[in-house]
Amino acid sequence: MHTSSATATAPAPHPHRWKALVFIAIAQLMIVLDATVVNIALPHAQEALHISDGNRQWLITAYSLTFGGLLLFGGRIGDLWGRRRAFLTGLIGFALASALGGAAVNTGMLLGARALQGVFGALLAPAALSLLTVTFTEAKERATAFGIFSSIAVSGGAIGLILGGALTQYVDWRWCMYVNIVFAVVAAVGAAVYVRDRDEERNRDRLDIPGALMATAGLVTLVYGFTKAEEAGWRAATTIGLLLAAVFFLAAFVLVESRTKAPLLPLRVVADRNRGGAYLAIGLAMIGMFGQFLLLTYYFQLVKGYSPVLCGIAFLPLVTCLVIGSTQIGARLVNRVPGRLLMGPGILLAALGMLLLTRLTADSSYWSHVLPSEIMLGLGMGIASMAGISQATSGVRPQDAGVAGAMVNTSQQVGGSIGTALLNTIAAGATTGWLAAHAVAGATPASAAQQAAVHGYTVAYAWSAGVMALAALIAFVLVNAGGFGSGSGETSAADAGQEADVPVAAH
């Protein structure tokens, strides 16, 4: 992350960096699992609070809209205000919002709490990643730290399904909200003692309000547009209008950022070939990954009849392989192998695992049909996410660390939101088409419905595999830098020149 001229005077290692990593990782786990922990509790919350079928999706969307829409703004606030302060404020706010949600007595109270969780998550998530970036300054240690962080970032969704299943089945759905308070308190206490920021490496330029408004409006309308497509269809005027508005706002954002003196997102962060390729590949891979979580959850519970807890346990091999791929394979190779040769093959392996899921039937065995796919998906995405997060934050100026971290989270969150809406819509359409074409005599309504549902899932899995293959191709073509933080502390040529022009304090 440093140029060779700066390496000699690099700051001393943070003495409590590994303890700091533990509490940063706990915060990241809380953020990521909260995107899925509510999924399994949703039917119980809907029944308890008399939430209509039309409004139930907002328990998921209220969180993803505010979180995805405000991430860039939250990252910039952290750079301006202080990453440690933003981190602690985000943790406390997230805990209070979770307490409000757990105590909800009506639909509006629960939806408001979910939206507030997204707001504070958007402040917390980029602060966590940027703190990690400035805490670990030695290449091998940073590779290990990023391996742990990236495995949590990718596996948190599956962990949320496991935790949500256990809490819903054995305690109460409200504890899917209350459990965040435990995570937040532990992380906040630990962070107050062990986490520190490098204040001299912050960007204290004035806040780019027009850019913040354009970015937030663009991301919110983009995520909302894909969510609306799931509900109203792709050809609905509302869907088309929202997606066109998103294009307009994001184009206006790029124009504003290219002309302002203190941009919310310095275009150099995304214009770099390696970082831009990493952001794009991560976002596309997440489309497939999050869609897979959603559809396999439906398959386990609705087709195979698994309980919430058994459904969570069925995801354990995937979570385990994600951690192994990230911390044991990716972290060991990331300083030795060019980024594209980790990201490309990793995502390609995950795509092959997704392709295996297209062979599922209502009678398929978990051990022969699902488990091999989970292993391939876990190992592939673990390796790719480690390299991707490393590349996406590699070579940035310390003052841009918050924004670079926010872009990683933005690509993951927007990709996940698009994947959930897109693949659910594809699956639903394929299911309807199958029922219309296979109204054959002799099939009971239940068996026909199951066959139709599984057909819908397999069509969506085929699309997921295709999107992941495209992500792998992008990684092979665009990401061409060497290992993250390689021995000489290399950056891309473009950033090396920029950093030579703008010396970084305390280096």
From TrEMBL:
<keyword id="KW-1003">Cell membrane</keyword>
<feature type="transmembrane region" description="Helical">
    <location>
        <begin position="207"/>
        <end position="226"/>
    </location>
</feature>
<dbReference type="Pfam" id="PF07690">
    <property type="entry name" value="MFS_1"/>
</dbReference>
<protein>
    <submittedName>
        <fullName>MFS transporter</fullName>
    </submittedName>
</protein>
<feature type="transmembrane region" description="Helical">
    <location>
        <begin position="146"/>
        <end position="171"/>
    </location>
</feature>
<feature type="transmembrane region" description="Helical">
    <location>
        <begin position="460"/>
        <end position="479"/>
    </location>
</feature>
<keyword id="KW-0812">Transmembrane</keyword>
<feature type="domain" description="Major facilitator superfamily (MFS) profile">
    <location>
        <begin position="20"/>
        <end position="483"/>
    </location>
</feature>
<feature type="transmembrane region" description="Helical">
    <location>
        <begin position="20"/>
        <end position="42"/>
    </location>
</feature>
<feature type="transmembrane region" description="Helical">
    <location>
        <begin position="306"/>
        <end position="329"/>
    </location>
</feature>
<keyword id="KW-0046">Antibiotic resistance</keyword>
<dbReference type="InterPro" id="IPR020846">
    <property type="entry name" value="MFS_dom"/>
</dbReference>
<feature type="transmembrane region" description="Helical">
    <location>
        <begin position="277"/>
        <end position="300"/>
    </location>
</feature>
<feature type="transmembrane region" description="Helical">
    <location>
        <begin position="366"/>
        <end position="389"/>
    </location>
</feature>
<keyword id="KW-1133">Transmembrane helix</keyword>
<feature type="transmembrane region" description="Helical">
    <location>
        <begin position="86"/>
        <end position="105"/>
    </location>
</feature>
<dbReference type="GO" id="GO:0022857">
    <property type="term" value="F:transmembrane transporter activity"/>
</dbReference>
<keyword id="KW-0472">Membrane</keyword>
<dbReference type="InterPro" id="IPR011701">
    <property type="entry name" value="MFS"/>
</dbReference>
<feature type="transmembrane region" description="Helical">
    <location>
        <begin position="111"/>
        <end position="134"/>
    </location>
</feature>
<dbReference type="GO" id="GO:0005886">
    <property type="term" value="C:plasma membrane"/>
</dbReference>
<feature type="transmembrane region" description="Helical">
    <location>
        <begin position="232"/>
        <end position="256"/>
    </location>
</feature>
<dbReference type="GO" id="GO:0046677">
    <property type="term" value="P:response to antibiotic"/>
</dbReference>
<feature type="transmembrane region" description="Helical">
    <location>
        <begin position="341"/>
        <end position="360"/>
    </location>
</feature>
<feature type="transmembrane region" description="Helical">
    <location>
        <begin position="177"/>
        <end position="195"/>
    </location>
</feature>
<feature type="transmembrane region" description="Helical">
    <location>
        <begin position="57"/>
        <end position="74"/>
    </location>
</feature>
<dbReference type="InterPro" id="IPR036259">
    <property type="entry name" value="MFS_trans_sf"/>
</dbReference>
<keyword id="KW-0813">Transport</keyword>
